[in-house]
């Protein structure tokens, strides 16, 4: 017969009371054991004290905690304990800490630019809207497609977009099969020859790979067609002319068999491809001196002088006919100069990009100052919100810069051929003519993105290429109009290092895995 609901509740209550009694008995036994072992409090307090024993709790006065200087050993510093020197040292340290803390809490009264005070989250872009921006990288997601080309109403722009968007990956090998360098690619050099795509790649350990697309794919024998074998990549010649990162390549303007390589190992080498020899043309006199070279360039009117910058902020000019140690250097920045170029038609003008967030234009026709303080004449400078990675001059006098503020800026100095010695540009003249939003947040494992112009385009229309974090290469005109977004199957990493052939519409891209992408 089923039990009533009241009976069930009564039994449950009995079980609960029994369990409570057992727990109380266990607690008493534990207290007795603690008392016998001396672990219990010396004075026992009643669980329910009488009114006579209760005392009103005295409120504890809160004392503001003072920040004390970090304790250091006076004995290790040779200071006698309790001496006047020790007391004075302690007072100085205490005062320094107090001043530092006071400075942190100091109110700022000046107007604040929101872009300058972002510490996390989305960045404040040029239009002042933090809800819109370049955003994080999204692999294989296009931001420019064939539809954008079709919708173009400008006939000339449409024709140019169709031409550049029509470039396709070299079909003989997929990009993931073309491993041009053993390690991450830091630089690419496109040989000026028009007969074939001859590309040089430099990696972070000083290796140089040479790729020649004229080499044919090996034929597969009939009996092997059914066998599934891993397809090998094209033959790559690998050299090691340097011991550290190869940061830049430059072909001699007078002899295309001569290639100059610059490296973080503080040297510049001249490689004669015909003679198969690489000689050191520049290096510090003292081998223990570490002065990593960051970029090199040459004038088309002078095949004997090579120009370079360093990670220490120096700019140098060296005549390769003299000793490697005979060179002129000028300290142009207190921080790293990441990249620079000479104006192709007016090589006395130099554009430098620095970690100090500036683009600077210099005139080599006027050198002022004394001894180590001698520097070229500063024509003008433009400051960005974050560091500027590279500054590239084209023959029309336009400078393209890529910055960590997620922009590509184009400055128009088309009238620079008429500049007089010692002149200075106004802020209005230095202001960018075009600003292109572009994700430049490469992080630690991807090589810094740089805008690189095509030196001598066949149609005369200036354009540049730059790697895209979504695993493409973007191509823009000097007006900021996007012409193409090159991609394709088999691209498994960001082609961060992008390079145009000097005259033909061929584009190369290098990845952090040492792979090469080639669009033709």
TrEMBL record:
Coiled coil (UniProt feature): 80-107
Ranges of Basic residues composition bias in the record: 52-61
Keywords for this protein: Coiled coil, DNA damage, DNA-binding, Repeat, WD repeat
A molecular function GO annotation: DNA binding
Start and stop residues of the WD repeats: 349-365
Compositional bias segments (type: Low complexity): 40-51
Gene Ontology cellular-component annotations: nucleus
GO biological process: DNA damage response; regulation of DNA damage checkpoint
Heme found in the keyword field: no
Chain residue ranges for the region called Disordered: 35-68, 217-237
Start-end of Acidic residues biased regions: 222-232
Function: DNA-binding protein that binds to both single- and double-stranded DNA. Binds preferentially to UV-damaged DNA. May be involved in DNA-metabolic processes.
Family: Belongs to the WD repeat DDB2/WDR76 family.
Protein name per UniProt: DNA damage-binding protein CMR1
Species for this entry: Patellaria atrata CBS 101060
